[in-house]
Amino acid sequence: MSDPTLYPVSDAWAARAHMDRNAYEAARIAARETPDHFWGDLSARLDWMTPPTTIKNVSYDKADFRIRWFEDGVLNVAWNCIDRHLATRGDQCAIIWEGDDPSVSGGLTYAELHRDVCRMANVLKDMGVVKGDRVTLYLPMIPAAAVAMLACARIGAVHSVVFGGFSPDSLCGRIEDCGSKVVITADEGLRGGKRVPLKANVDAALEKLAPEYRVQKVLVIAHTGADIPMIADRDIAYAAASEAVGDDCPCEPMNAEDPLFILYTSGSTGKPKGVLHTTGGYLFWASYTHELVFDYRPGEVFWCTADVGWVTGHSYCVYGPLANGATTLMFEGVPNYPDNRRFWQVIDKHKVEVFYTAPTALRALMRDGDEPVKATSRASLRLLGSVGEPINPEAWRWYHEVVGDGRLPIVDTWWQTETGGILVSPLPGATDLKPGSATKPLPGVELELVDAEGVVLEGAVSGNLVITDSWPGQMRTVWGDHQRFFETYFAAYPGKYFTGDGCRRDEDGYYWITGRVDDVINVSGHRMGTAEVESALVLHDDVAEAAVVGFPHDIKGQGIYAYVTLNAGVEATDDLKKALVTHVRKEIGPIAAPDAIQWAPGLPKTRSGKIMRRILRKIAENDVGSLGDTSTLADPSVVDDLVRNRTGAP
Ligand code: WTA
């Protein structure tokens, strides 16, 4: 499994990097011992209207729980990402846009970004949006998505981006939860040559809203130019509205702890949580980690392939790069359209220097062999990155040897929606690489491995990954449910933040993330709660009960395996399996579609009625030799039936 080979830092990297080995060790100590001084000095990387004098104010104790950074500082995120660069890089490209269709590309300079953001901010103001209001964004990967995020930030509105692949139901739930009065969408998106009916989905979502959550306005950006119905008094065409406003809009002064955005993510129970990030700490962390981990210099072309609907897109397509004066590339399409050379051709076309993607994409492309990669030059690249799930050593080596021609370091970056930015990663000038390991924590990130009882484990060992101290980019609350925030992350191991991940530490102190230890599955680098998929399945008329687990999947990392108990009298057919897959796609979105469905006349339950997921996971993994003790089950014979009828794809 693990590959012991070490890829040492090259002399050239050690010489060029922002942080070499010694600087890294010194920063680790300084962040630990004198945090106020360390982070206080570094906070000057942002432009403050009022610089902070109080740096860190954190307690993870229940009685005194608080997480605050730079709390008396005042700043604006749009100013930091745009205005402050205008004097030196107004004509530099801020966003390169590569369309789904390879013949379509474009972009914005910093000066154009400024104009567009101001205009959209003015349109939002005219629509009645004020500081603190929530605005839901449901957009394709086009520059207008970044413009909309920054326009909200400019006027102090809180954006909630919903990934364009989510269904109307999912969108509706997210709008209700944060009470958005305004939705920004586009007529349609394009992905792999297919049209995504974004505006139609918004219409469907808004029809489902409970009356008290009525959305007042929908701002519609024309992207494909499709002829879509507009609803009078509610829908506003952006093109016309932006003509009617000026292209100057002052930046709203924001306290460092004022909310910047909400982003919904799946947890182990219940509906998705609205992860809340704030203005100062989040922007600081996105900017600091983008510079450090990617060893970024202003003006370099940086490409993060994530959609802005995920946190990776927030921090490393938009906020981190733009805060650092980067040229960031936004790609609307998919890796295999029109064919599997697309990523590499885009790198050559736009002379990309840093490329940051997910292992699932690499594994899918790897299947097609080296030829599509070798047909391109990739000479502009100087660094590769990986994010979202553990990268298996085989994929790591292919990335390194084939994509990187054996000459580029790979930064395998571990982090979460909750962490705001990267927490564990090699630094290209400081950390020797081991394929499959996210290596070591960044300065200020204090990791521990604990057992189920919370006993701290020392040395080379596996355990649950916790973080014992705060970092500026940490989430501040679950929107509307501060209690849930505390219970989810700080109750399991008092005084510590629990990540939900399992992890191994080796003899060299390197960390190897082994995956989630809760009921969250990671499908193609996207988080999905088993409870969400189960709730969707039981909404179907024919389904009595469902239990969902993850199982190893060659391309996706983990696939979704559903055990379904049908209502009495319903016939278990293959057509019904297909119908259930379609049903889940409709309820949540395509990313939640089960990869396998197994009919389960009964589910393994304890006498108190709790489903024994451990057993279901083993069966799904086809590891039926080690099911462990089944004697505590109410009806152990259920397990024999499930093992006998283990299934493949629907
Ligand atoms: C997993 C994505 C191993 C992990 C940024 C985490 C990883 C979850 C890595 C967060 C990595 C992310 N190696 N596992 N480099 N990066 N993960 O919130 O299980 O979508 O808890 O944030 O992805 O997923 P999220």
From TrEMBL:
Residues that coordinate or bind ATP: G388, E389, P390, D412, T413, W414, W415, Q416, T417, D501, R516, R527
Enzyme Commission code(s) on record: 6.2.1.1
UniProt keyword annotation of Acetylation present: yes
Modifications the protein undergoes after translation, according to the UniProt entry: Acetylated. Deacetylation by the SIR2-homolog deacetylase activates the enzyme.
GO biological process terms, semicolon-separated: acetyl-CoA biosynthetic process from acetate
Domain Acetyl-coenzyme A synthetase N-terminal: 24-81
Coiled-coil portions: none
Reaction catalysed by this enzyme: acetate + ATP + CoA = acetyl-CoA + AMP + diphosphate
Domain AMP-dependent synthetase/ligase per the UniProt entry, residue ranges: 84-469
The organism's place on the tree of life at top rank: Bacteria
Chain positions recorded as CoA binding sites: R191, G192, G193, K194, T312, N336, S524, R585
Molecular-function GO terms, alphabetical: acetate-CoA ligase activity; AMP binding; ATP binding; metal ion binding
A GO cellular-component term linked to this record: cytosol
PANTHER family: ACETYL-COENZYME A SYNTHETASE (PTHR24095), ACETYL-COENZYME A SYNTHETASE 1 (PTHR24095:SF14)
Function: Catalyzes the conversion of acetate into acetyl-CoA (AcCoA), an essential intermediate at the junction of anabolic and catabolic pathways. AcsA undergoes a two-step reaction. In the first half reaction, AcsA combines acetate with ATP to form acetyl-adenylate (AcAMP) intermediate. In the second half reaction, it can then transfer the acetyl group from AcAMP to the sulfhydryl group of CoA, forming the product AcCoA.
Entry protein name: Acetyl-coenzyme A synthetase
Species of provenance: Brevundimonas variabilis
